[in-house]
Sequence to fold (798 residues):
Amino acid sequence: MSKLQVSKRGRDVIASPIRKFLPYVQATEKKGIKVIKINVGDPDLVPPQDFFKVIRAYAGKTLPYTPSPGIPAHTAAWQTYFKQFGVDLPMSGIIPAVGCAEAILLAMQAVCDPGEELLVFEPLYASYKSFAVMTGIKLVPVLLPFEKNFALPTAAEIEKKITKKTKAVVVINPDNPTGKLWTEKELNTVVAIAKKHNLFIISDETYREIRFDGKKPTSLLANKAAREYVIVCDSASKRFTMPGARTGVVASFNTDVMHTILKFAQARLSTPTLEQLGLIPVLNNSKPYVTKLVKEYHKRRDVIAEGLAKIPGVVFKPAQGAIYQSLQIPVKESEDFVKFMISEFSYKGKTVMVTPMQDFYITPGRGHSEIRVAYVLDSKILKEAMEILREGLKAYLAK
Amino acid sequence: MSKLQVSKRGRDVIASPIRKFLPYVQATEKKGIKVIKINVGDPDLVPPQDFFKVIRAYAGKTLPYTPSPGIPAHTAAWQTYFKQFGVDLPMSGIIPAVGCAEAILLAMQAVCDPGEELLVFEPLYASYKSFAVMTGIKLVPVLLPFEKNFALPTAAEIEKKITKKTKAVVVINPDNPTGKLWTEKELNTVVAIAKKHNLFIISDETYREIRFDGKKPTSLLANKAAREYVIVCDSASKRFTMPGARTGVVASFNTDVMHTILKFAQARLSTPTLEQLGLIPVLNNSKPYVTKLVKEYHKRRDVIAEGLAKIPGVVFKPAQGAIYQSLQIPVKESEDFVKFMISEFSYKGKTVMVTPMQDFYITPGRGHSEIRVAYVLDSKILKEAMEILREGLKAYLAK
Fold:
């Protein structure tokens, strides 16, 4: 007789890497040292006030379920939002989700059965790894090499990883954790591969507008050649600075996909009512807020780049998008360095917490000299953080 | 080369049965006929006003993610709430979820791998069927016979369905869709089986307090003998009449289970911030609201029972709990009857929409003469609805 035991997927899924650092951070903070946290994508910016206005004014007597395809005005607001990128989705091509996280889970289950494969590029936003374990899907990684600023390998290189079990490919653009912006040519390579091998493209566009140096925001849904293949997973969390609202969306022109995702969504009924309502005016008039937001992140990107340029041994190219800067540091084990920073080191009563990159890789052994910085704080603090990082690295290497 | 095609789980999952009736309802409403909807569990009651007060008063500048184990005061409020049922959970034994729906999904994935089996009792809340398809888990049904008022079969009967792949058993108490209340003896039978065969018990207690005829609310977590085995899935949706808040919870004394569910929860980061905050005062002072609510549902249950008693050929025992009454009607195909009611029939300009029960069964052929009534409307309307049902059934049988 078997033991009472949790599932294999439950045992296999990894704990949030941030969690293991928590006790160190807490101990350090107890000593009175300030820990500047630029490890997670939880920004300090103020969300559009229309969101709160609508929620405060909610006059409904009851708080009912919404339809699974969303409150019509909410779904229509996403429709309006997407139009500015040349994407003219029907209402049935849009289903609200609980953050981009649920959108990804729904999309993955819609295209892959347990045991099937999903092509991904590493380094990869770590939640995909957990979602894959939970849903029984195998992630097959294609390396985007740090040395080549995360450039896509040739189609032939990518195709080597495709098997009979491959059902889809994931593109995150702009990318977390690398800060990479996909070029038109790279996107076309992926589209061509998808069409040739009949693969869906899960296009995670959470950071869509957050592109620097004048780059225009786009959506893979605007690529007419790829229409049937693309499933966009998206979220209000980053572009409107409201991760706690957990308002995401799945969008596709593929009617089979949307019908499937609707059936999944019906089983869990609906997403929260108030946040759907609050997001309507925000989506209907996104540009003013987003324009300011991108300017702010651009400034922060520059501050980070300037600070990093002054640290001996650090290798990086300034991020092209999203809210993350990835970099190489002259250490063997960045996790050990991070631990050092949050438990042994301080500079003028402060220290910095960044993210070691190894957990963003699937292939063991990779990313051990890389870290990710999230520029989720004010430029002044970020400038200081880069100085602390410099001093910390110096101290660590002198050990 | 394979075709671009959604996953098998995507094809296999069934659409919400309500959806197929929607076009009929819309056409009927267009004709000016009022459709009294007592088919879904979306009640008319007003939720506790403290919930809205807290949300309206939200003064945070940002809207950040919350910790995956919940805002501490929110998790502590669940802890306080559970204490009144003799359940003294540690904070780590509680994780907020997006409605009971997500709680069930998390619990199922924590105990079963793809291909493994979950013992359930049919008729069964239909979302379990979809969740099983999505997660690759096989549901193995044990019949609770309508004729015996859904009484549990003997342990020996149940054990016949247990295989090497069985990992857990689901108990919904009070039960949707039957309105059944589990007896102490029945619960003990399931606990004994779980302990003998090393099965987890997923205890869906969404309707916990909604018990009639003076029956006291309990939780299976209060059963000390079953401590390690029980995973409670719960929600604020029904007891506080706020389904649109999507605030649920998973609770267990089993540390392996909670550690696993925390890892799953971390991957999708957190549940919405505002609703977690709003629920705090409601959970901390649940009794006054819930007492009134149960009284109201009790009254409605009686109104339904009185109305049904006047319909020739209808067989039922008054529901003992939850917000549903299941009944047999003298027809071969209740789905056809429901269609008749919402497309061909009206009485004094009104008609009634109820739920045919067959979709609550897993075994084909079952439930075709059964319907479910949700008493989610005012007694006066319910009384009228029962009259319309009587006239409708008469007209249907006369066809």
